[in-house]
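Quick check before the chapter quiz. The format below is the same one you will see on the exam, so make sure you can read both the input and the output lines.
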Amino acid sequence: MSVQHFNKSFFHNALKQNSNSIIYLSTTFALILTLAIYGSIQGNLKAEYFVYGLMVSLVFFIWAIIEHKYRQEPE
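Here is the expected output.
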């Protein structure tokens, strides 16, 4: 059985192809991880915080898609 190592060029190429998607997915993951760590330390881990975090990430992702679609490039 072979062990696969992390391929930097694969991640770098994926980031070039879908920069908005990758950025928002990694930001959402970081937000959820931060909420989990902070909630565990403070002792007030609630499910609604994760729902709020996911909603905020989704809204910003939709905003970026709409902005990209309707923003006109200067000629």
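If your answer matched, good. DSSP finds three helices and no strands in the chain.
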